Amino acid sequence: MFESPLKSNARNAWSESQEELSETEPVSPVSKGNRGKKKKNRRQQPQQQKIEKRSVSAPQLCGEESFDGDDEQSEKRYTDYDKPIVRGIFQIGKKSHDVLLTSMRVTWSPIQPETPTGELTVRTEYVELKDVFGVKVKRRRSAGQETGGTLLGITLFQCKKKGPKLKDHAIHFNNMSVDHCEIWFKKLKEILSGFQNRPKSLKVFVNPASHKKEAYQIYRDDVAPLFQLADIKADVTITERKGHALSVLKESNLDGYDGVVVVGGDGSVAEVAHGLLLRAQMDAGRDTDSMFTPVRATLPLGLIPAGSTDVVACSVHGIRHPVTAAMHIIMGHHQEVDVCSFSCLGRLLRFGFSAMFGFGGRTLALAERHRWMPPGQRREFAVIKTLANLKPEDCELSYLPVKKVQTETLDPEESWTTTRGLFLNVSIMAIPCLCSMAPRGLAPNTRLNNGSMALITAGNTSRAEFIKHLKRYNSVNNQFSFSFVETQTVWAVRLRPRSQSSWSDDIAEDNGEYDSKNAPIISSEGAYPWNVDGDLLEVPSELLIRLHPQLLTLFGVYIEEAEEAHIKCSCI
To answer: Where do the segments described as Disordered lie (predicted)?
Structure first.
C-alpha cells in the first residue's frame, strides 16, 4: 500500500519510534562462505575498504566534498547540471544495490563480493527522472488498517513507452530506515516538482452517457488512480445534459487549474474544446457576433477516449487507450493544434476541428433521430438508409488556397476560388481525423498544426462508385484516386446550399415512420445538417469556415498513423 508523507500528517510520517520500525543491517560485501574468517592477505584490504565505504545504511548527501582523489573517475562522469545529490543502499528485488540520485536520473548497481582476481563486473541500471511521475512511501499494513504500518521503503512510478502505448511501471526501493527514506523521498519530490508543464490541478468533465456508458468507470478505474499517484488534484463534474460542460466553463473561475480534461467521445471533446476557446474570447473581450481574430485558450485540454470513434483523441495519441491518454496528461506532453471557427451571417456558431456536409451531415441527422438504438446499430442503420436515399447537394463552394493567404484577414473576393455544382459529400478538416475505421485518417494529407485545412469534395457519381470511395478509407489504397474526388489545401471555405428543400423535407419523404417525438436535438425549418466533430449543427444558409493556427493546446504528441486494430464497417 502506498501513501504520500507530504499529504496529511506529513511530519508524523517520519517521527515514528524506532521500536516500531527496524532498520536493515549494513550489507557486507563479503560472501556468506567467508563470514567470521580473517583475511590473511592484507594487500586486499584497501580494495575491501573502498567497497565497504559504499555499504552503509545511512544515506550520503553528495556535495563537492563527497569526492576525493580515489573518486576522480566517478566525478568526471557527471556534468555541472547532473551532479550527484544523495547516495545509499536499497534492496531492489532480492539483492542489495548501491543507488545514486542525480538531478537527472536514479542509477543503481548490485553490491557484489570481490572476485579472486579483484575484478568486478557490475551491471548498472537507471531511470531518467523526466520519465518518473510519482514517488510514494511503501508500507505494510494489516487488514483494515488505514494509517501507519511498517515502513518498507519508497516506490518510483515511471512512464514507459511500448509502441504507441504509455504505461505506468513501479520500481521498488526497499529500506526500512525512516531517516534514509525521508531524505530520498524529499529530494525526489523536489526534483519532480520542477517539471513545469506537469499539471497539479485539473478540471475534469465526465460524460456518463458517452457510447456504452463506460466513461465514469474508465475514469474511476484507469485514470483517477494514476492522477493520485502523480499527486494531481482533480475537480470532477459528471455532466447531466448536453451543454452542461459548456455552461460550467463559461461561468466558473478557472484560475486555479493547470488544465481541463474531458472523458467521453468526440461530441464531448467538441463541447469542451468550444467552451475553452469561447471562454478565452470572453475573457479577452472579443465580440463573437462579428468577424474577429480569436485568442488562444489559456489552459491545455486532455482527452480520455470513451466514445465510439474518438477521432480527436486518436489523432493526438495514435491509439484509443485511456491509460496512454492519462499518461500524456500527467507527463505534461503538449501538442499545439489548429482549430476552425464556424460562422453564419457574421455570427460565431462554434469552434471545432472538422465538418462534413452532404452524406456525412445527413447520416448524422438520421442517427440522431434514432438514439434509442444501440450506438453501433444506430450508426450502421443511418449509413445504410442514407446510402439507399443517396442524392447530391446542389451548392456553391468557395475557398481560399493556402498559397494565397498571408494573414488571418479575409482576402478580397477575387482571391477566392468558386465552383458550383452537385456534391455527394464535402469535408473540411483541420486535423487528420485518425480512427480505427480510417487508420491513415479521413484527411491524411493534413497535420495537427500545419496551418491549413483539407477540403475534400466528392462530386456526383453512382452509388456503387461512392461506396468504393468510402471503403478505401479502411484500406491501404488511396481513397482520393477517383475522378469525382478532389482535394485542396485551404485556409477558409464558404459553402452556400442552392437547393430549396431542406433535410427535414427529405425525412418526411423518405421515412414513413418519421415521428416529431424523434426529431433531432436541434431543429429548425429550412436548415441544412452539418456534422461538426460528431455533433449535429443546423445552418439555415451559408456557412463560413476559417482556420486559426495553433489556437488550442492538447495533452499529447504528433502521430502519423493510428496504430490499433482496423475495424471495418459491416454495413458497406
So the answer is: 1-78
Identify the band that residue 193 occupies on the pLDDT scale cut at 50, 70 and 90.
very high
Each residue's pLDDT tens digit, 21-46: 233 333 333 344 444 444 444 444 44
Give kind and range of the element (H or E) at residue 532.
strand 528-532
Contact 475, 387 (CB under 8 A): no
Question: Distance between CA 134 and CA 141 in Å, rounded?
Answer: 21
CA distances from 141 to 144, 146, 204, 534 (A): 8, 8, 32, 49
How is 137-170 classified by DSSP, letter by letter? EEEE--TT--S--EEEEEEEEEEEEETTEEEEEE
Place of cell 462554434: 350
CA-CA-CA-CA torsion for 259, 260, 264, 268, nearest 10 degrees? -130
pLDDT at 392 exceeding the cut of 90:
yes
pLDDT of residue 12: 37
Q: Tell me the whole-structure pTM to 2 decimals.
A: 0.81
Is 113 within 8 Å of 157 (Cβ atoms)? no
Q: State how beta strands 105-110 and 95-102 pair.
A: antiparallel
| pLDDT reading at 355 higher than 90 | yes
Q: What DSSP line would sit under 184-214, residue for residue?
A: HHHHHHHHHTT-TTS-SEEEEEE-TTSTTT-
Is 495:542 a contact under the CB 8 Å cutoff?
Answer: yes
Place of cell 483541420: 430
The whole-number average pLDDT for the span 361-386 is: 89
Q: Which three cell numbers stand for residue 418?
A: 468558386
Choice among 297-301, 434-438, 441-445 with the minimum mean pLDDT: 434-438
Instruction: Give 3-state DSSP helix, strand, coil % of the chain, rounded to 5.
Output: 30, 30, 40
Provide φ and ψ at 51, rounded to 5°: -70, -40
| Cell, residue 522 | 436541434
456 grid coordinates:
475534400
Query: What's the CA gap between 538 and 378, in Å, rounded?
Result: 20
